[in-house]
């Protein structure tokens, strides 16, 4: 079998257009997801049983159901209710782009919240006790002690979560979005070259993942620089 490399180069600009949409979906969803995940994680780590109930149910649902099902429930399910069609939400929920953003954001928020919850509970008790002894209020302690330490602990795992979301973003093509996978499928329908197009799309995903890994390594080194610092003991 002969590979048609010319087809890859011919349609590479189109693939890059799809890659740009993929990056946009991942970035926007990741940003919204982490904003939602922080309060969910704080509630999840609370000692109040009633306060933990909401995030426990939310996290259980979004971690226990496939992302594809969640996308379909939002994109196809919302249109089944007249109350939604007549509300201010309909201009948003009728657009596949925003339905994908909502589904990805809610999904990654659930996973991220559980990661942050574990990081909060991994903070040494001594640090909490010292902040309490200094007379810090609960909001001040959360802002200055708990969240900075938790983000330092969770950062490597959160990088993996974003990489998983990058790969999961390929499901956006199931609701007509021309992301990287959707664009590759469209090109295949025109050229009948599935092997070449999926190979090219896979290489673009791999390149994006490599860049993300490198960026997260740099950010991790900066955030957790105290772990990499080695004092000069030679005198």
Topology summary:
Elements: H1 5-44, H2 49-64, H3 67-77, H4 82-85, H5 90-93, H6 96-122, H7 125-133, H8 138-168, H9 180-191, H10 194-223, H11 225-228
Helix pairs in contact: 1-2, 1-6, 1-9, 1-10, 2-6, 3-6, 6-8, 7-8, 8-10, 9-10
Can you walk me through this structure?
This protein is mostly helical and 235 residues long. It has one domain (5-228): MetI-like fold (Orthogonal Bundle). The chain has eleven helices and no strands. The protein has helices at residues 5-44, 49-64, 67-77, 82-85, 90-93, 96-122, 125-133, 138-168, 180-191, 194-223, 225-228. Helix 8 (138-168) packs antiparallel against helix 10 (194-223). The radius of gyration is 22 Å and the shape is flat.
Rg estimate, integer Å: 22 Å
Look at the structure and name the CATH superfamily.
MetI-like
Number of structural units classed as domains = 1
**Tally of individual helices:** 11
- pLDDT under 50 segments (min length 5)? none
Average residue pLDDT: 89
How far apart the termini lie comes to: 67 Å
Secondary structure: helix percent = over 70%
Overall geometry: flat
User: What is the number of E strands?
Assistant: 0
* CATH domain class: Mainly Alpha
Order of helix and strand elements from N to C terminus: HHHHHHHHHHH
CATH topology assignment: MetI-like fold
By secondary-structure content and strand pairing, the structural class works out as mainly alpha
Strand fraction equals under 5%
Per CATH, which architecture?
Answer: Orthogonal Bundle
- Largest pleated sheet: none
